[in-house]
Amino acid sequence: MVAIIKTGHSIYKVFYYNENKVKEGVAECIGAGNYPIDVDKMSDTIKLNRFLKQLELNENVKRNSVHISLNFHSTEDHSKEKLMAIADTYMEKIGFGEQPYLVYQHHDSGHPHLHLVSINVERDGKRIDMQNIGRNQSEPARKEIEELFGLVKAQGRVNNQDFELQPIISGKVHYGRNESKKAIANVLAQVLSSYKYTSLPELNAVLQQYNVLTDRGNENSRMFKTKGLMYRILDENGKPIGVPIKASLFYNKPILKFLEGKFASNTSGQISDVRRVKNAIDMAFLRTEISLTQMVQLLEKDGIITVFRKNAEGLLYGITYVDHTTKCVFNGSKLGKQYSAKAIQKRCKSITPVEQKMGSSDSEKSQGITSQTTHSKINTTSFGDDFQNNKSVGSDLVMGQLLNILTQSEQAANYVPYQLKGKKKKRRGKPNNQ
């Protein structure tokens, strides 16, 4: 189970977000906590007024709405009774057992999940401190509930596969098939809180997998100068299509200021996350010759998507790796010089002119290379399984190389990280006695 807690300034928005889902037929209110009557006998007014009356006890609390999602593995199918028991237990363990709350079961994504709506003002008017509640209360509660109810664990699963939420709306947004704002909002809800990105290009590397792009506009535009932000849908060729939507119009307000806060708080992942991507890249180069397209395909099988950035002339200048298993995003240069776009091109022994130019011919499209970036299908097959099934990589020599890779922090024989290089001492010339 994965728990995500968000706070906001308006209980109205949180409440009607879930109630509108009910009206659309993609959610249902399955229960409530600390309400005077059963939920099926309450009108919308009764549900909302219970929150509003208690909030009047402390009008100084401005950030007073609490919106929690409890996400379960796609293989789990729990009854409403069990889901309510999980919700009640969770709220009790995080200190909200005496608070009024509503429980909604949503059916609009690839995994089962609940939305819990509550407030952080108690019956005596005191404010519930929300700082560090995720780490101090929610995380221990999640682990206890997983054991208590026999849920799929969010960490430590068999074969070292981490818990992974399925992409919303089967992954990609298709213009014209979905209501644009709703489709983008669903993708943002999935990506913004799950992935670790530290810049706008890194965030876009993830969003583009779902045919979504965030755009600040031209540097000389009014939007750019006023720090505005738009979200757009991309077509199958990676080109923007339809009318862009202002970031401020979305429920969770994913404006530039919000994203900059995420950039600052996100980390690039632990050393093991970085090493996983590096090892996967180096494993791909175990073959004597490999093309850029083949490298992309091999990384894809390990759950790592490669996104290329190119200039107006179509020349490759940047590369970003999106690891859908650890939810980490890395620019190539962040991993080290040998993983940058320039170094990767040099390491590829057989780069065709088509790959080098990164155009938009039919042969490129068949490999997922578009005029904007490379879009690969999301695939989290482990490399270990693929390695066993790949007969062309089965020699003793390759196995020896593989063991070397797994036991070394860096894989290139002549490569020494910059941080480990000692400073060269300048030789003093011998004094000229002549």
TrEMBL record:
Region (Disordered): 353-385
Domain MobA/VirD2-like nuclease span(s) in chain numbering: 17-151
Ranges of biased composition (kind: Polar residues): 358-385
Entries under Pfam families matching the protein: Relaxase
InterPro entries xref list: Endonuclease_MobA/VirD2 (IPR005094)
Source superkingdom: Bacteria
Name by which UniProt lists this protein: Relaxase/mobilization nuclease domain-containing protein
